[in-house]
Amino acid sequence: MISVKKPYIITRNKVIMDYARVYCDTPEKLLKSPLFSDLMERFIEKTAARGSSLFAFLLETMPKVKRDDLPAQMVNLLRLLASYSQAEITAMNSGFGPVLSRREELNEFVEELYNFWRRFERFMYLEAPKRQEATNSGLHGAQFIKSNEEFKNLVLYVYRQIAENINGDTPRVYRQLPSGANMSMLIEQVDWTCPGLYGNLSQVPFIRLSLVNPPVILYPRSNKRKGAFEETGSLTPDMLRIDPSEWFCYPAKVGELTAFIFFHQDFISLALSLSNLFETARYEDIRGQKPDLIMAFGLAGQGMRSETLFYDDKDNGIMTGLVKYSEDVDYFGYFKKMALTLHNISMLKRGRLPVHGAMVHIKLKDGNQANIVIIGDSGAGKSETIEAFRALNTEDICDLKIIFDDMGSLGLDPMEKVAGYGTETGAFVRLDDLEAGYAYEEIDRAIFMNPDKANARLIIPVTRYNHIVKGYPVNLLLYANNYEQIDEEHPVVEFFSSPEDALEVFRSGARLAKGTTDEKGLVHTYFANPFGAPQRRDIHEKQAGFYFDRMFKTGVRTGQIRTRLGIKGFEHTGPRAASIGLLQIVRGLKS
Question: pTM of the full predicted structure?
Fold first, then answer.
């Protein structure tokens, strides 16, 4: 029996609505809805628990109303205020006279109720009819977008009408505050080739279209990732047992691979943020297809010895990631890094070398150009150096394309040259390490996470899918050194003389931890990549040796770039100096 999703759910400061079942097209329907009554009850309970003067105001002006009946009475009053003036309401029901006579307190009550609603992270979904073939779903998409706009406008209209009837006047300043859903999704049941082991996931609907209403500011419970992902030697259906009515699936393209990312509704804010990071898979990538990667995020944990596990399902040709339901994993890095771990191990199987880094294509006006890969672990300065490069505003640069920003792989292109391939169309970067003002320039596209805390992050689109799968020949491969100062013996950019020298530095993976994980001080991570490389070290060593030898033989310059991002006081000037040094190298290349 298929479980049916509830019309709405309020959980962990999130409101998740099935718009087809909470549909409202008039103020009357909105104010009569079960969701509005639920919100009113929760709001009054909160004011009572705080001992707020607003709760005292209700008790003083409605002394004959029983405590449990206060929410219903206030719902009735607001329904009247959506259509009538104070005088008209008093004439119809004198019992509301005392409340209406205290205009300032009533106005404050409505404002705080509106703010109470807006402080929730608000999500809406609409289910499209199941398709029998790969037809164009543009009509459903248009209806979905229209529904979002209508809901947002209705909430704003009702709030303004009530406020105007309380104050007896129209405002002279209108603020178009976000009042509808922060993010929404069009979902659809899709038949995919589901091996029996994964049968518990077969009834979960897929996200086919997502909608973001910026600015989006989210507050996940955790703010850093801990430990490493463990491999399990077995996977059972019980480990994947779920209630499909509480789950959704985001189908993503992680580089060339198709990933089905299943998630519990309590993690919807993180999961929908994936739309700013990974390309959404096409319908043709899902219907009747078997994915390359499967992730299940928010499992009960039955049979799991750790919160984060992965399994190499060789029988079905699927890399599988499992994340147990916990507040500790309520951090976007767990979604992102588990998907990338599965990708990296898959790439090693296919003869590529996964790299934890960033790649950029730079073209200067004099014709010089370079495809540069900067490798480094979290907080090493790879992304920050590229962003600083973008912010140089030099007239020399005529083209700058991000190929990947955090994870990619090295392979051979049709010309047998070492080429870089990406995984993500977006970037998950530390807010503190960006150039001042950059985040505000991108506020209309970015998703902010815990902007008031250490390790504040934003997720922002930085490139297009065709760039990450094209394969760009590598000209420069650099290790991001964030812990050494610059002097005569240690220039900004330093090149190695042999593959062995290069492999020694890359293999060591040294960096000063920046607080993005639970590590502190100078730490070492094998090849600066805890996501697949240490778990498959033997095959990784062979691949690394092959590709580094290949690069030295074909003239790919390999070295290290000193970003100084881990040194106090150089968080901004370090990456900027590194980007300037890098520009000088590109200027010196032969056209």
Answer: 0.90
